[in-house]
Design brief:
This protein is mostly helical. It has 3 helices and 2 strands. About 50% of the residues lie in helices and about 10% in strands. A two-stranded antiparallel ribbon has the order 1-2. Bound molecules: FE2/S2 (inorganic) cluster. The site of FE2/S2 (inorganic) cluster (FES) has 11 residues, from loops.
């Protein structure tokens, strides 16, 4: 995983930030959104961010 890959360009949320949110206890996309602000502006990153969150949650 490329931790520095920006998923949300509006809030500059990187894959690493989402992984960190999941590690810190986020157990759904809503929690990740709360912790990182991902998808809170234009929303175009939502699909990818959701997919990535799901993938991380499936791993842990
Ligand atoms: S790219 Fe994530 S809210 Fe716009």
């Amino acid at each position: 995983m490329n931790k520095d890959k920006v998923i949300c360009s509006c809030y500059k949320v990187k894959k690493g930030d989402i992984a960190e949110a999941v590690e810190c206890g986020a157990c759904c996309f809503k929690d990740v959104k709360k912790a990182t602000k991902v998808g809170k502006a234009c929303g175009k990153c939502k699909k990818d961010a959701k997919k990535f969150t799901k993938k991380l949650l499936a791993e842990c």
